[in-house]
Design a protein that fits this description.
The protein is an alpha/beta fold and 599 residues long. It contains 29 helices and 17 strands. It is globular, with a radius of gyration of 27 Å. The structure holds adenosine-5'-diphosphate and zinc ion.
Amino acid sequence: MPDPNEILRRVFGYDRFRGAQAEIIGHVIDGGDALVLMPTGGGKSLCYQIPALCRPGIGIVVSPLIALMQDQVSALRQLGVRAAALNSSQSYGQQLETERQMRAGAVDLVYVAPERLMTDAFLTQLERCQLALFAIDEAHCVSQWGHDFRPEYLQLAALHTRFPEIPRIALTATADSPTRREIIEKLKLENGRRFVAGFDRPNIRYRVAAKAGSARNQLLSFLKAEHPGDAGIVYRLSRNKVDETAAWLRDQGIDALPYHAGLDKTVRSENQARFLNEDGVVMVATIAFGMGIDKPDVRFVAHLDLPKSIEAYYQETGRAGRDGLPADAWMVYGMQDVARLRQMVEDGDAPEAKKRLEHRKLDSLLGYCETTRCRRQVLLEYFGDAGLPCGNCDTCLEPVESFDGTLAAQKALSCVYRTGQRFGAGHLIDVLTGSDSERVRNLGHDKLTTFAIGREYGKDEWRSIFRQLVAAGLLRVDIEGHGGLALTESCRAVLRGEKAISLRRDAGRKKAASRSTRRPETGIDPADEELFKALRAERLVIARENGVPPYVIFHDTTLLEMARRKPLDETQLALLSGIGKAKLERYGAAFLEVIRRFY
Ligand code: ADP
Ligand code: ZN
């Protein structure tokens, strides 16, 4: 049997395994079942690709997205691996040819959609082939609680009964333990080994700010200052907002495209193809976009609307920086977002218990948004993965000052009470700061004892205070969706003066932002910048000729190494990470040519 280390070097061009890869690969090669939980970008694919190449027979890979199978197959073929896909998007003739190759043992990896795999006809075919393993990618799709549930995945349990001798490896980046348990139960993996990697994504810089004025202008400044020409994803809650934001960004000169389930199918796949095949497209999308997108050089994920939970936030932001280079998770949010999400939960037809769970999940997310601690710590603790302050999030880079907000909280809470627990933050702030507005006078709120008792703070400061009181669970945003605020049970102690409240000081954080908002360093010397650009241009030409996305030729990490180390010949080039035998032979000369121009 071939040696996994040798395959890693020769085929993939990497020096050593990462984290638990070697252990997982060894276990599967020995015929064991496994559940692999690893964050996005952790290197899950090698965990089944290498065993499939080492063990005799075919590795069958179950993958939920037909549209992306072809990319994975192209990437493997570029490495000189005999790979194929089987799905309904291919002609009958192509499918027959692949099945013939399978029987002849002329292929090492076959990607197949679950509904196809589990047909009786196909399973019978498989019995006539030699099989190396089954890999179940995006295994969280078996979970009915999750948002990516795919009923076809439930049938995969039958693989175990039908092919008891063939090892199965299930992989996912979804971190929470209920999903984990469900995967094991539904796929009958009780006897398999579990490999759980830490969930930290150290190269992602987490930042959250309050919406101030126009959120899309905040986004535009972020894009212009920090990510000109970079590929990224902007998430929005609704289809309308997606269309609107994408059109507006285009007007501002950003190469933005929309993606949501309401778009015509061909438009959707064209937009996805442009995002994958070109270098700097910004995809504005609903959460319908993202699963299975393994574009490694997504440099930022921006949220203009709040995600529904920390799990969703982690998964969506996780699409940034798979290649390990610096990337941003950037979000702005406001009180209206909270009201809208609460309302969506209420309007949904989920049972009461599920609605309560969804409200709690949103509470945790708000806690994350308003935290004064390291954001990464809060995220990882949520997944049961504690760590030290990270030094790469906004609160670490610019520690948040806090102040004794007990009195401010009391004023805000009593103002909510005196006005009848039905007004939104805007009106409450008018009352607190003693605004001479018609609405205040008409309602007689200028006669209240809380009128003008909060002049020590400006409107922005009050907005921040109200947001924090909501996040701390002292105020509830009404779920009819008008944004009205009401007291909760837990505010009694604060009103009675039995409990002190510490609040973050948001004003004056502008300067702070400048430190956490510098453009993430790719670590490239300015002198090598031109060479790097030329290498990328060369890559784009080759990618177009081959009809594959640029990163399938070489990743940015590999091009950065070329720019830095400037190899003279093929021997030196082969030493760089990400250059295996097949790619060296195919593209080595072309890239060396570019490098020589810069000597
Ligand atoms: P995942 O599926 O877990 O999100 P991938 O399998 O796509 O991650 O791997 C992420 C990136 O890391 C890919 O670009 C892959 O080529 C690279 N990679 C994986 N394993 C190694 C390794 N041992 N050494 C160097 N790079 C690796
Ligand atoms: Zn931090």
